[in-house]
Amino acid sequence: MADKAKAAEAKAKGNVEFQAKNFKEAIKHFTEAIKHDPSDHVFFSNRSACYASLEQYDKALEDGAECVRLKPDWPKGYTRKGLAEFFLKKYDDAAETYKAGLKLAPEDQTLKEGLKKAMDAKYDVPGAGAGAGGGGGGGLQFDPAALTAAAVRNPKIKEYMQDQELMQKVQMLASLPGNMQQQMIMQMMNQDKRVLELFMAMQGIDVSTMSGEDFGDATERPSPAPKKKEEPKKEEAPPEDLRTPEQKEADDWKTKGNELYKKKQFKEALEMYDKAIAVVPDDITYHNNRNAVLIEMGAEHFDEVIKSCKDLIDRRYEINSANPGGASFEKVAKVFQRMASVYEKQNKYDDAIAMYNKALTEDNNRSTRNSLRECERAKEKHEKEAYLDPAKAEEHREKGNEFFKEKKYAEAKAEYDEGLKRNPKDAKMYSNRAAALTKLLAYPDALRDLDECLKLDPSFVKAYSRKGAAHFFMKEYHKSLQAYEQGLKLDPENADLLSASACFSVM
Length: 507
What we know:
Blueprint: H1 4-19, H2 23-36, H3 41-53, H4 57-70, H5 75-87, H6 91-104, H7 109-122, H8 144-153, H9 155-161, H10 164-174, H11 178-189, H12 194-202, H13 245-262, H14 266-279, H15 284-296, H16 302-314, H17 316-322, H18 329-345, H19 349-362, H20 366-387, H21 390-405, H22 409-422, H23 427-439, H24 443-456, H25 461-473, H26 477-490, H27 495-502
């Protein structure tokens, strides 16, 4: 039964730890709140935010999904779920989640930004995607290359980058959705103004030319000495576009294709990518985008995608020779990811895992590692489901019963083990295995099986009898009597239970 008072107390403690950025401690408190009241969606939402802050996006997704299940009309739940899907590189799932949230709150800026980011990430739009340093959700991104370039121009930025604690703050902020990120930046810059300087440096703003007043309240510092009049600096010219006319034209076609894809106008998108390829055939990006559209168009195009990907891999050195960078390690990695995606959809999990591993040899990044782990879990689940067969499970149970009668308890347990693999929902099988485990003196294991049995069938009286016996042999007499009494509530005339409980009256 829910204890809302204790749940609220644990939640309050979790909120305090979250605000202090003690995410692991916050998780403990929110978990305690969930134990007291597992029906409150806010607890799962808060814990999801903690997991996301720790970059444990698998767990963040589980909690986000549970939050949505418990409270499907609460928009924030969709932001939690969508953010986790985004960082797991499940861009399609993230987009659908954000769309569902926008049906509830059409003007929610975080949901809008999240949807745009998910759609852009699918096609490698600059600034989109769940990169190695976080980002996403529509806000500023952590860009190590931009910071390194800024450090060359400004020694102060170089000094900041050597402060590990400061850099962790910046990366955490970069991982937040847009609206939340802006609020947190404003809050944190009051504590440490270097945070804002680093974000400005990543945007290409030369903070060395700015006065102290640009970063906060001037009353906090001594009045600066009068400065000599400086001549106005000349505005820097924008960086030169080094693309050839053909590359510019191909990128224009690609941009049009991306927009059409977002509208699910797949045939028209293919035409745009084909035009890009016709102009610049030696760049994997356009081929890879085309293959992504074919995957969306359905299983009948999967063979074409695999053939195209294999051809690109075979020609990678030829492509790079004709167009340096056209088959970079990162681009080749994405080809392997496309192949893995197709194999996964075809339930060819071993092939998919092999492709993810090849992708990692080209570009070892967190998103691909997450995809690999998801694929391995999907394979395990698929194999378990394929192995299910209630008829064969019953055969193993009967063999186990025969061994049990012959007092071959280890052999009986082995048959029950196999039976449960074939049918893990068979309460009677758990009870039988518990009986064998009891004979083998493995009482804690027997109790675990009996608990599982009663979860599946709370009215299974024999399980209470066996549970009472296991506790008795462990000298846990109060628990033993309690089990017998629970069984008698279901079957007051049960001879075994009456006999066992009677023993306690003479103890």
